[in-house]
Specification:
Length: 134
């Protein structure tokens, strides 16, 4: 009978993904707070950068927390997108940008859903545990 009190050790890729997700969260908080970060990209790329960065952000979190439902990740990323834009009021000294917050959430939904889709079953790190067992 298995010992249910013990948790299975987390695979190395899971720990690395969680470390990347936490680091990414710190970078996103810094980017919202630092006025100079708003000048890293051309204004023409502004929306594309928001979409792409939040897609990657959610994909990393979806990889780091494989047992958490994708809707929880999307919801958390939507909330983080709104918080990120709210923090930019102070850091970038401009009013709240609802459009950016919505684009952040759409990008996050795309990234999390893509990471959990059948397209992501085999990654550069090898098959997921569920595939390796079959």
């Amino acid at each position: 009978m298995p010992d249910l009190a013990r948790s299975r050790p987390r695979p190395a890729i899971g720990r690395a993904a969680l470390a990347c997700a936490l680091l990414f969260t710190s970078v996103m908080a810094w980017a919202a707070a630092d006025f100079k970060a708003s000048y890293l990209f051309s204004p023409r790329l502004h929306g594309i950068v928001h979409l792409g960065v939040f897609a990657l952000f959610a994909a990393v979190w979806a990889r780091a927390l494989p047992r958490l439902g994708v809707m929880w990740i999307i919801g958390a990323m939507f909330a983080f997108g709104f918080a990120h834009e709210g923090w930019q009021i102070v850091g970038h000294r401009h009013p709240f940008e609802l459009g950016d917050a919505l684009v952040d959430g759409i990008g996050a939904a795309f990234g999390a859903l893509l990471m959990r889709s059948p397209l992501a079953r085999i990654t550069v790190f090898g098959p997921r545990r569920s595939q390796a067992a079959s």
